[in-house]
## 1
Amino acid sequence: MTFRGLALVFLLGGLVSAAAAGGRFVPQAGKDRPRGLSRTVEFDLSYDFSVPGQTRRVEFRVVVPQTIENRQNILSVSYSPKPSRILDENGNRYAEFVFVKPDRHVNVTMTVKAELFEYDLLTARLSRGAADPASEPFDDFLRHEKYIEKDHQLIQEIAEDIEGETDIDIVKSIYDHVLDNMEYSGLGRKDWGAVKAVQLGKGDCTEYSDLFVALCRARGIPARVASGYTVGFVSTSSRHNWAEVYLDQYGWVPFDPTAGDVENVMIRGMAFSRMRPAYIYVSHVRNDPVLRNYNFGAYRYWGDRITFKDSIEFRPSAPLFPETR
């Protein structure tokens, strides 16, 4: 893709390095918090650009984690260097960096400290009353879009066979269908989307989430893909995609189909309704127009080709044990 004939746009596609991450689990509940555990984490997101040739300008946008009720409380965010500007669009916050006549090596670092809350179907049942559907715009989370092809005949045929008397029953049947018909193939280099996931019967967390969301939408249940990072998961990458579904009784509730893909039926059932406080939410926009339909971030440049690498490093903290009080 070109921009004014000179700029190339790239997805932040480099593998994010995994790191051993600690965090203090603390029982927490209060007027404005869900019941369950919380943990505080601090991490550095680093973005490195190598500029070997004659490049006149580099522009870089990245999504910044925000405080989200019941999910996370962002305690601090710092940048090096300071962003050229901060944008708030589509429910996301973005930091934009502009480098004119850049040096041969350019680094952007964002340091985030966050409190993560345990929030899942079980927690929602314990801590929330009925949600107000009138306050939620659902059109974006019921539509057909790239990668979430809910109107495709293949997706519609599967959705018609999904059984369940309540929305929760239907969501559980969709969850089980995804796990029964998908095989985790390891971290992929490109996104395939829901239809290709069905055809291949395999994929990574992105395909699991895209298919799960597409089937929910095909049944008229608002759903969206959540993008972010996970703390302490054994993986080649801390970057992760999961899903959220809107249930009339509870509002938006997260589910992670990839985490439930195990043979043990009991553990699978628990994974449907339980998610530990290990999820750092970054975005709910699957095809982000601010990032030219990518997520996490994107860059463009004028001049000779540059190379890019990103990483995440969690800072050491307390052991992963609940505190007793």
Note: The mean pLDDT is 85.
## 2
Amino acid sequence: MNEKENGQNRISEAELIETLQNLNKYREKIAQVKPEDFKPTGELFQIEGTSFQVQISPEATRGDLLYFISHIEDLVKRKLRTVSSEEEDKLKGKTIMNHYKGNITPGNDIIPVPDFEKAKAFVPRQHLVFLTGAGVSAESGLETFRGEDGMWTDQERVRLASAGAFYYDTEKCLDFYNALRMRIAEAEPNEAHRLMAALEKDYEVTVITQNVDNLHERAGSTRVIHLHGELSKVCSSDNRTTCIKEYPLDAPIRIGDKAEDGSQLRPSVVMFGEYVISTDEAVSCIREADLFVVVGTSLKIHPAAGLIRYARPEIPKYVIDPAEIDPCVQLGFTHFKTTASEGMRRLVETLRATSLRGADNSCY
């Protein structure tokens, strides 16, 4: 068995850490150069202590190179977090970027800077993860759930939203959900929904929502995880993970409407007394986040309330809500104490101000 077959030529964790340390040293060295003294020659050179070769055009600024190095560091950090995965078996030597379509490989390939349209294809965009609650949809006219005068302060509505009511008081349960579905049909996405969707232009965005409406999707968000299900869909009452399909919000679900398996059709949501199915997917997503933002949720309900603890401590974290959110404060979140839309405007401004894209940022 040769070296490649027995896996001895794989990237080790130590190699990744060493590469990351050397990239950081090189970035700090470049940062000490005055912007006016940064004069690239356009020649190919090696980044000290790494196997990366770079060619920088004479028109590039110091900020251009710093921006690019920071993204290379992000790539190595991501690889370091998954160094034990089976995927690592496919990566040989120090070809750290090989799994990104082969666009960046150490050794002989030339990485052009500052052709940022091409550079964006070389490096993964930062993963921005939102955890949203009823406060986001409140600006669209929908009731909150656990806020003051929220829906679940009415015990009769809590009863009608339960699995027990569906099986033992089916008609009233369906009437309750049909009324809620109609209100969602009449609502429109607000600015907070639209700003989250617009961030997909610059980030890999995932929205994890406790809301059962479809306003994130209607605003343009393309990756939404619904912790508590979706009222725009129906499913089997024998097994709520099957026979799931879209169902018009303005079309009531009646007793006698059947799923494909012959069972009574029901809303595809998590009723009181049922467990949340998509928690593992949400946890995995938050663990891999580069930025994490909580918007419009009191964080009083588990398992959603516990999700914030899966965000890595070193990443930027924000919470947008008019109320004090003690769990977030304890974990060092930056708090925009305002409404969802106003908070999202401030978040977008903050992200723009801290971005290194193509700018010679003074923080260096």
Note: Residues 1-10, 83-123, 356-364 have pLDDT under 50 and may be disordered.
